[in-house]
């Protein structure tokens, strides 16, 4: 099934939403996750339940990997501020 439209979620940047449309929900994406506070074990476990693995970067920023189909559930978590697709140069 081809995805042609998705909800406009202000917590998800346009490039990440576009990747969802172009690549489909089963593709894995690398993105930057910004939270409203430093993540504790309970928040990290919630992300894991959504299929998202995070690595701390600095402050409230995390490097994250998840299937594109999970980004809307991840963005809906109350401690998530913003999700941004990683640029190729940020992946190295």
- In the sheet with the most strands, the strands line up as 2-3-1-4
User: If you consult CATH, what is the topology?
Assistant: Alpha-Beta Plaits
Ranges where pLDDT stays below 50 over 5 or more residues in a row are none
CATH architecture grouping: 2-Layer Sandwich
**Counted beta strands:** 4
- Mean of pLDDT: 90
- The total tally of domains equals 1
Largest sheet: 4 strands, antiparallel
User: Helical proportion?
Assistant: 25-40%
CATH structural class: Alpha Beta
Percent range for β-strand residues: 25-35%
Determine the structural class based on helices, strands and strand pairing.
alpha+beta
Shape: globular
Helix run count: 3
Ends: how far apart? Answer: 32 Å
- How many whole angstroms does the radius of gyration measure? 12 Å
List the helices and strands in order: HEHEEHE
């Amino acid at each position: 099934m081809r995805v042609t439209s998705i909800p406009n979620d202000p917590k998800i940047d346009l490039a990440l939403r576009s990747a969802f449309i172009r690549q489909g929900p089963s593709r894995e994406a690398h993105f930057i996750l910004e939270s409203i506070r430093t993540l504790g074990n309970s928040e990290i476990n919630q992300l894991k339940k959504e299929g998202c693995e995070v690595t701390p970067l600095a402050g409230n920023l995390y490097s994250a990997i998840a299937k594109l189909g999970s980004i809307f559930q991840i963005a809906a978590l109350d401690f998530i501020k913003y999700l941004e697709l990683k640029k190729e140069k940020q992946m190295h």
